[in-house]
Amino acid sequence: MKTIIVYYSLEGNTDYAANKIASELGADILRIDPVKNYPSSGFSKFFWGGKSAVMAETPRLMPYDFNAGAYDRVIFGFPVWAGNVTPPIRTFVKDNNLQGKRIAAFACQSGAGAEKAFAKLKAALGIDDLEAELILIDPKAKPAAENNEKIKAFCDALSAETAK
What is residue 28's three-state secondary structure? Predict the structure, then answer.
């Protein structure tokens, strides 16, 4: 089964997790970025990122190379913004036909909201369930054995699904 991890990372936590998961699963990786970057610090980071997430914006993305037909599974990775999936992920979902793909997701957060974000991702994709879900607390900024254990369990669950 061919797998790709599609992710957006603002502060490096999601990037860190995406690379660990890709290494564990032997998956391809695709980082997406908006044409106009979000602020990465201070009040404006929370204001603009939160507003964009709450308003369900779909920003224009930098060019990327993705062929949905080449993959059986897509794993989405994103930081949680105001209980939402990040806008670049929303744009990717809107712009690509992922019907019939196995879908999993992981979210990085400092507080809470990942469960709500997963629900919104499923709604955007028009699916009832994700193949696997993973919630990490700042895996790069606050390294912890618990995050590595969660990543391993997530990858093991996906490997078990592949074997079915």
Answer: strand
